[in-house]
Amino acid sequence: MKFNQVYNMKQCLLLLFFISGISTAFAQFEKGNRYVGGNFGFSINKAESSTTSRSTYLAINLSPNLGYFISDLSVIGINPQVNFYWNKNITSNNEKISSITVSGGIGLFFRRYFPVVDNFYFFLEPKATYNSSFEEESKPRSFGLSLSPGASYKISPKWMVEATLGGLVYHKSYNSSGANQEYDDTRFALDLITANSIGIIYFINQKDQ
After folding, report:
1. CB-CB contact of 98 with 88 (8 Å)
2. How far apart, in whole angstroms, are the C-alpha atoms of residue 42 and residue 127?
3. Is the pLDDT of residue 136 over 70?
4. Residues contacting 154, CB < 8 A, separation 6+
5. What is the C-alpha separation between 20 and 142, in angstroms, rounded?
6. What is the DSSP string of 128-147?
7. CATH-assigned architecture of domain 2-203
8. Would you state the torsion angle of the CA atoms of residues 5, 151, 132, 107, taken in this order, to the nearest 10 degrees?
9. pTM for the predicted model, two decimal places
């Protein structure tokens, strides 16, 4: 699964770069430009312990975003988030335990574009996010910081496609399960394989050429 994700992402980036070399150049970004867009992301992890227990974790993320250019190459913005998590564990006794969690949150981001050729850009995006589960009992909450690389290609004056890799991620979660039981989990990782997303952007106030 990891190989397929890396291979598909490489194909996407190479295709964007190839198309940019044979297409017509469009107007560059300008201070004051605004856009709306969205990303669809997924992450899957499988693990097996020495005691023969196995676990599978799947996360799906829907994330619309609103961006504003504070300069010709720099953007600030917000993005609401909806997250779906599925977790399955198979114990050493072959007992299956699964759970589903749905959460929502908000993210604040800054993005810096780096022009490569006409219409094609690399970018770096620092982001801070906060999420809270819709569950009433445990009310898990999480806070995250990330630094993600990516690439964008402008397919027309008003439309752009992009691909984002997971990058450097700090994640802290808090869970209260009642009966005075509380859990904290903090993670710090570099993930360019299992967490990536593709998205599309529409420029609101940029004129057609």
Report:
1. yes
2. 17
3. no
4. 26, 119, 120, 121, 160
5. 38
6. EEEEEES-SSS--EEEEEEE
7. Beta Barrel (2.40)
8. 180
9. 0.69
Query: What torsion do the CA atoms of 141, 146, 152, 157 make, to the nearest 10 degrees?
Result: 60
Distance separating alpha carbons of residues 12 and 198, to the nearest angstrom = 9
Distance of CA 182 to the CA centre of its chain: 28
Amino acid symbol at 182: E
Measured between alpha carbons, how far is residue 41 from residues 77, 95, 152, 168, 196 in Å?
A: 18, 30, 16, 16, 6
- Give 10-21 pLDDT, tens digit per residue: 455 555 555 445
| CA distances to 50, 83, 131 from 145, in Å | 32, 16, 12
Token code pair at residue 184 = 């904290």
In terms of pLDDT, which residue wins out, 51 or 5? 51
Going by C-beta distance under 8 Å and a sequence separation of 6 or more, which residues neighbour residue 163?
A: 9, 12, 13, 16, 150, 151, 196, 197, 198, 199
Amino acid at 159: W
DSSP 50: T
